[in-house]
Write a structure and sequence with these properties.
alpha/beta, Rossmann fold, seven-stranded mixed beta sheet, 17 helices, about 15% strand, binds NADPH dihydro-nicotinamide-adenine-dinucleotide phosphate
Length: about 425
Amino acid sequence: VSRNPSEDEFHQAVKEIFDSLVPVLAKHPEYMEEGILERMVEPERLITFRVPWVDDNNKIQVNRGFRVQFNSALGPYKGGLRFHPSVNASIIKFLGFEQILKNALTGQPIGGGKGGSDFDPKGKSDREIMRFTQSFMTELYKYIGPDADVPAGDIGVGAREIGYMFGQYKRIRGGNEAGVLTGKGIGYGGSLARTEATGYGCVYFVDEMLKDNDLSFEGSKVVVSGSGNVSIYAMRKAKELGATVVACSDSNGYIYDEKGLDIDTVQRLKEVERKRIKDYVNEHPDAVYVEGCRDIWTVPCDIALPCATQNEIDEESAALLVKNGVKAIGEGANMPSTLQAIEIFQKNGVLFAPAKAANAGGVAVSALEMAQNSMRMSWSFEEVDAKLNDIMKNIYASCVQAADEYGYHGNLVVGANAAGFRKVADAMIAQGIV
Ligand code: NDP
């Protein structure tokens, strides 16, 4: 804590992981002897940089850019870029640290990284987004590459932003290194099903967990927070599996309709028209809009899929979800539940799918995009979706198996951390003290 002052989110992520590794370390003292924890918690490097740009009023703006290259034991650094005013070193480090184990769980050869900026894309014109992303890439390009570090999207970074950054990277570097970024448009090296991957993958994972416990999406009531990339496709897949999605949100408030939301409308409003979720009720007067996004957890449901942001479910919201009869939680967002909230779910027998396992589908398909770029091939939607489904099933199975191995049957937090950690730790030992 004294080495990383004021980095609350980073401390929280490290505590969650290290606490659950106690049984692993007891069985494998070599990890302590080799200083794995001390080495793993220190990023290989953290890059911060100035991002100057000129807005539409000809005024100079300055933002801060970040890239953390956390751990390359398994392969090139891989992890998204987040553009949101709350971004700081703590947020980037918590995301990067989680990413190490998440990427290990996918079984693909990718290390952990993350990046972003405190730039706020909301309300900016297309040209402003372009000027900002070009300036951002003009510094970032020095540190990334298809075999070194491969960024993707995250909050505030979608296909538009990736497209502008890819254009600028090529302009500076020359050539056409398609594998330098993932989440690209389909017409220029992107993978089919990447857009859907995190949301679909989260539902595939939760579906496995439900089936294992004689439950199912069919006929269940689902609440999904957020209305961005992860949220939209989690809603779509949950509905496809027979659930009724009764509520979703944005950072201002939430919408509720007990008969089920029209996801096409949500997608058009948020992705195409870039409007607010409250505009939904203009087209669907039966639905209710409530100001304040945190109150979405007051809506009774069988399954809750937090897909917006970190720490969106605190102790109080968790207790309320339990009181209202929630049976399962699937974390689509990164670290959406506080440590106290997780404790409440586990104590009350709520099935809990932790983020680093449940939302690994996005990065897994990103790695498939890298593979397609290297082979100069593209697979069909069905092919990628089938691979995603297999990967999520395998992740679920390895979490269950690792939890059992260490005496924590059914505890997927321990299972995910133990399974991911062991892969990275073994690779670090094999590669010496570096
Ligand atoms: P988007 O930017 O597409 O959507 C984010 C959604 O969450 C929006 O509805 C946004 O509302 C809401 N939101 C953002 N910040 C806050 C906040 N501070 N409080 C309340 N609501 C907020 O991002 P993604 O869907 O890509 O990402 C969502 C989560 O999933 C993040 O935790 C991300 O790290 C994680 N994730 C994403 C992956 C991906 O492939 N995209 C992969 C793995 C994890 P508003 O529009 O009002 O800002």
